[in-house]
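Example 3.2
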Amino acid sequence: MRNGFLQKRFVTIAFLLFAGLSLAAQNINFSEHIAPIIFNKCTPCHQAGQIAPMPFTNYEEVSAYASMIKYVTEIKYMPPWKTVNENHNYNGDRQLTNREIELIKEWVDGGLEKGDLGKLPPVESKHKKTTIENPDAVISMSESFEQYGVYYDQFRTFVLSTDFGQDKEIAAIEFAPGNASIVRSCFISVDNSDKVNALDEWDPGYGYFSFGEIGFVPDHSRWYTWQPLKGATIYPKDNGKILPKNAKLLLHIHYGPTGAPTKDSSYIKIKFSNKPLSTINQNIPLLHPYNLTNPPLKIPAGEKIRYHAKFEVPFDLTLSGIMPHSHLLGRKWEIFAVDPEGKNSQVLLKITDWDLKWKQQFDYEQPLQLQAGTIIHALAEYDNTSDNLLNPSDPPKSMQQGRRMFEEMFLVYFDLTIPTGLAETGIGLSSNSSLISSSKTTFNINVRNTQTVNATIKDFSGQTHLTLFQKKLFNNGEHKLNIDFENLPKGNYYLELTNQNGVVVGRSIFILVEESLFD
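Structure, written as tokens:
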């Protein structure tokens, strides 16, 4: 009898709990529960003039797509925010929490209750972002590019010339999309050579088609990156970028699909630094095919394969952002750091559902300090089977390293802050190129206080490969250091300057690469 009583009591409690849950679901309404989520995480892109195809600015607009919103948020296709690790906070994080996803589901399943419109949060008519009000320079596309209305993504590189007669130190930079409704991303590279001319002349239209990269190894690849809703980058005091004199800016723009012909004419705003920089911001792909532990990069047809690469942090660095890059066979990325003692590790970035259409740089809210001797690892998984719906080949075909759609890439860019040495030691160091595909390059030395200097080229383990000079006297002023690398192996290096007491007065990171790295 007691068992029967307990059974009835259990059923009663279960019924009340179920009823409570149902009542909770019925009480979920748009004004109080759903609008704060949508307006914060979705509406910045889903409004007039922005990249998303339909607006979500009021109850009618959101409820019309409610079932779709429920589905794409449940499978985490939207909002398009691919990193899943919880170790760090990133600028512009659009990721929904599990509770927010559940609230949307409950609201849709519960009948799309509107709620009290008096409790509806305000909708900003335009996404607020930092902008440069009085730029020192504005560099624009020379004409408009027409995105054909054919419902597929387009990738285009535009060559913008600069006419600065000397190197410029950049304190702030802003990419401004001419048509934010179609510009999905822009990666700006910098180059001083004529390599781009043949590519630009090959394509009869304005700019030239380029899928994965710009088609050759530039002096600085992805010197600056932009994705929707990103405003101006204002660098901290005494920090910034170096723009070499008379350099070409190469805008690799990803245009999203549209059903009607649409034009874009984007531009760049720049603010110069009013004094020499003590630290330089550098974006450089320090993980690449040259430090794979299981080379070569080749994905056989019908196989799923994982590649691993690593490098040692050569000296203390500040990491501001990170950006992996693969093509259509890429499925997963995990980049992590192991401390110099090998006892602790931390995930820097993790993506379990890589999608080339949503590639971006992930910027940390708080930059990370990487100690000398830290080992950085990257694991990338590729799927060259028919299970991969993004596979461009049917049936699958073997793929290898390359920039084209039917080729693959393994690159991880690191957005670093590197001391120039100028503020502390009176001598500053910068490079005309961070990616060097020829045997020769030039470094810039800025001397405030006359001093005797030693110069060596080292790899990331600290081994010296070249001694350029010892006890060389440098007078005040700017100097050019021309270097011939002879037959150094491809990979990561740095130029190190020390004074007569052996104190480091300047360092500059670069990578020796083959021209085929991005070809």
